[in-house]
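Thioredoxin domain-containing protein
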Amino acid sequence: MPTWNLLADHYGKIPHNELVTIAKVDCTKETPLCAKQNIRAYPTSTCSSSRLGHSMDYN
């Protein structure tokens, strides 16, 4: 199982976890969203924060 799926499973089991959301997006189907996030290669991981008001690329 890919690491991202394990991470999503882990956080999905934490009751009332409102601080972290792990999401998987199919950019072949959600092209406007991926364009807005400047996703140009796959896989890509980003970190978004509502407190910061923007997203950051994960290196």
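thats it. The first helix runs from residue 3 to 12. The longest strand covers residues 46-49. bye
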